[in-house]
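Issue: ligand-bound run for zinc ion - logging full I/O for the record.

Environment: standard queue, default settings, no custom constraints.

Inputs:
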Amino acid sequence: MRVSQLFNKTLKEDPAEAEIISHSLLIRSGMIRKLAPGVFSYLPLGWKVLNKISNIIREEMNRSSCQELMMPIIQPKELWEQSGRWFVYGKELIRLKDRHGKEYCLSPTHEEVITTLVKNEIKSYKDLPLNLYQIQNKYRDEVRPRFGLIRSREFLMKDGYSFNQNEESLNQTYEEMYNAYSRIFTRCGLDFRTVDADSGAIGGSSSHEFMVLAETGEAALTICKSCDYAANMEMAVHKKRKYENGIEAKLEKVITPDKKSIEEVSQFLNINPDLMLKTLIYKAVFPENEKLVCVVVRGNRAVNEIKLKNAVNSIDLILADNEEVIKATNIPIGFIGPIGLSNIDIYVDEEVMDVKNGSTGALKKDYHYIGVNAERDFPKNSIIGDFHNVDEFDVCNKCGEQLYFKRGTEVGQVFKLGKKYSEKLDCKFLDDKGVSQNVTMGCYGIGVGRTMAASVEQNHDGNGIIWPKSIAPYHVIIIPVNMKNIEIIEIAEDLYENLLKENIEVLLDDTDERAGVKFANADLIGYPIKIVIGSKTLKSKTVDFKIRSTNEEFNVPLEEAIEMTKRILQ
Ligand SMILES: [Zn+2]
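Outputs:
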């Protein structure tokens, strides 16, 4: 391809709406253009990248006995009512009506359609296992589409679904998909981690997320410095920490005038913050009602609200304000404690239970308890669990090395769905004893556009994108520095033709732009190799190679340029 013919215009300025680097660079490099909020066109270079990612996915899926098909994006309401998700999905589901008033949605996912499709085709265990996938657009009505391809309303996804006889067979398919996903993201040139994930709204018993590490990632991750342990913050665990828990003492109420925060009270009473028992009140929101819950963690710890929310099993959890707390308990926030607190469920972090001589609010304004022994003094019906955030002083539960924190962008997820959908949608098969059973399912997704954006988040510099070779739109760009010099043009054209003959994905920048502009555009778009043809070529019959990822530059005899290109691309 010649740059003069390429449908590509680069921009000098960052687009105003771009909050993260991938959004900005994909627009500036002319890969994507916005049509409406969260809705994008993929221009030829961007589409080439997406297709390369899709093809890597296809190859690895097909290698794993997974078959590609294509299902409708428009899906009837009745199916979604059968699965119970027409309401559960809420406002994120884009709904529409046809001219007869029949209701549909634009698909955010395909469990309903594929389960219905498969149940009408399979009869017995001989038809199983079955593993099917597609690559197509999905839809989600995000409240606030942002971050370009990271949170858009229309997005390209690979979604796959497996149908198995039993849990054991599902486990095998799940492992195959897990391995295939690892190969896919490795082949895409990404630094990623897999994390145990909370399966959220899709449901099911087990799930892993594939996270591309990048400073601007949306998820906070806990990662081990030494082994492969990685987890989302809401699932992260650590080796039990050793504390000084104090020597058992008498429970006493002491005056702490106007001392509310952990720091104030710990200083005033001269008690280590580790032994201050921080008590917080949350408003838990359920479908029908709301109620207050109390959580107690050590003073050095922060409450992990997702861990707590999962234990409470509420839709939402909001820190109660002073007014709400006073209304419920007659006590202002800083003096709340679990001892003697009634009518509110009390969740106690497991680390608190070891405290022998701590302090907490005494349920009386301006008073705290000292000598608190959690085991002895806390209400016996307290719910004990892990409700705290892992922090930088914690070490890995698997290997004992230090844990650290990074951000990541989720690009893929694998779920064990079990029988959730096969029961609701009545998808059955006859087992080898002739007994009718519900199939056991798994589902496996990859955000193709997200993978593209995450790659840019991870691979860029001040000049632009640095595509890994496997997904770069073109591998090589030939830059003749002076388009008025016939000899230079002839050498560039000749090299271009010869690289094409070798099936190398090459561009020739035959535009009349200044050399500086050509270099800047090539760096912004992120081609792995630049080959520069200039006066040096005329003088010494050599060309300059510039490698985007390493900034290496070297001079090569013209007749070795093709071999050198092939060697770099291998
Ligand atoms: Zn470890």
